[in-house]
Amino acid sequence: MSERPGVVNLHLTVDMSEENTMTMLYKIGQGYVKEEHYGLALARVVDLPPKVLEVAETVSKALDAQAAAKKKSSKAFALARRRKLVLGLKETLKQAESGPMEGKALLSWLRRLQDEFVRRRMRRKMDLKNNLRKGDHYIGSSLYLQACAH
Prior knowledge:
Layout: E1 10-15, E2 23-30, H1 38-45, H2 50-73, H3 75-97, H4 103-134, H5 136-149
Antiparallel strand pairs: 1-2
């Protein structure tokens, strides 16, 4: 959100240099909290029951996996992969243009390159479709329910 006009990202700073301690510094820091799983660290400091921490860690891991899967299958990621594929093709064609191949050898090589490009493109399309079919809600919910059942 901080990239939006008028939005400022701030946080309250803490010192977590010692294990199982968190000291509030009562200062405002720029940006987001760099500590991963800040809430889990805080939960350990206030000495919540082990079962609560266990469920929280399981849910946190599930949410991390869900976010990674969503990022991997996102449109932006797909677009970046597609651009990388096309740029790789462009670079290969530039090298071929100034290379020593000619005639039938060049034509044969270009056909193989085209086939490989189409194969890679189709594989990436199928990967994207498969990732989208998994469904974000189902993945997170089922892991959360499994964690609560234990």
